[in-house]
Design brief:
Blueprint: E1 3-9, E2 13-18, E3 23-28, E4 31-34, E5 39-42, H1 46-61, E6 70-73, E7 78-82, E8 85-86, E9 89-96, H2 100-105, E10 112-122, E11 131-132, H3 134-139, H4 145-167, E12 171-183, E13 190-194, E14 202-206, H5 216-219, H6 226-235, H7 250-260
Antiparallel strand pairs: 1-2, 2-3, 3-7, 4-5, 6-7, 8-12, 9-10, 9-12, 10-11, 12-13, 12-14
Helix pairs in contact: 1-6
The chain binds thymidine-5'-phosphate.
């Protein structure tokens, strides 16, 4: 697979063309941003961990019939993925109220929701990714009724799957954000899950201590992010239990694991 020119650069990832028009390379950067780019930093090793964690989760989604863009991980920072036309909506699912939900509606932080709450935000940095309703999505034809019902159903299934996956390793899935896109391969207009699922895009709390194991460490200055992401990866069985991972040796560790395979 030949890597071509840069097609798009986002806050945490870069997309490169390949010699196959239906496939692109997704590169995970170490950059972290919060509050619509107002807070920025580079956290060495973050991209490597997100690449591994997202690969692990997405490659397991086929089991539950959620088609997604991942073809395969290529190396420490890159994945080969299907080219999609991203739907300009961030789909958020919440199990416990925190973050922007509590700020917006005055709900007490940490309130367990009786049923998963789906929210939609317009993917538009200039407007600060505003919350939108189902009616906005239909009115502006970002999706039709059938497509949105299908996505809602996938979101619920994905939430059930992720809740179970993380519960099994002592982690509460508080909320997450995902993106979907249209594939135009062989003339069909399928909608598949794209982007990533990682501690950058989920809120993950230790089941017992409620220690934050996600990007809130960076957003709220809660201390180092790399040990928390490493903990998630270790619990999922992606990294060796005994490994003492720091930002500096994430790279070495993964190459050791490959050799041991
Ligand atoms: P929020 O409480 O800030 O709205 O975030 C809800 C979830 O969505 C949380 O898991 C973090 C994730 N998220 C992103 O992945 N990207 C974003 O730009 C934002 C605002 C949230």
């Amino acid at each position: 697979m030949k890597k071509g020119k840069k097609l798009y650069e986002g806050k945490a990832k870069i997309i490169f063309a390949t010699n196959d028009k239906n496939l692109v390379i997704q590169y995970f950067k170490d950059d972290a941003t919060a509050f619509n780019n107002q807070k920025k930093s580079t956290i060495e090793g973050k991209g490597v961990l997100n690449n591994r964690i997202s690969e692990y989760i997405l490659s397991n989604l086929n089991q539950i019939g959620i088609k997604n863009h991942l073809v395969k991980r290529l190396n420490m920072r890159e994945q080969l993925v299907m080219l999609v036309e991203i739907i300009p909506i961030e789909f958020i699912v919440r199990n416990i109220a925190t973050g922007s939900l509590t700020k917006r509606l005055g709900i007490e932080d940490g309130t367990t929701l009786e049923r998963p709450l789906i929210e939609y935000c317009l993917k538009n940095d200039k407007l600060g990714d505003p919350n939108i309703s189902r009616e906005h999505i239909l009115a502006f034809k970002w999706l039709d009724d059938i497509q949105l019902d299908l996505i809602d159903e996938k979101l619920k299934r994905l939430n059930d799957f992720l809740l179970g996956l993380f519960r099994g390793v002592g982690i509460k899935l508080v909320d997450f954000k995902v993106e979907f896109g249209f594939t135009h391969e062989s003339g069909k207009n399928d909608i598949i899950l794209a982007d990533e699922i990682s501690p950058d895009t989920c809120r993950l709390w230790d089941s017992i201590t409620e220690k934050k194991l996600d990007k809130d460490r960076f957003r709220k200055d809660l201390g180092d992010l790399i040990p928390a992401y490493t903990e998630v990866a270790k619990r999922l069985g992606i990294l060796h239990e005994q490994s003492n991972v720091s930002a500096v040796n994430v790279t070495k560790l993964s190459s050791v694991k490959k050799k041991n395979k």
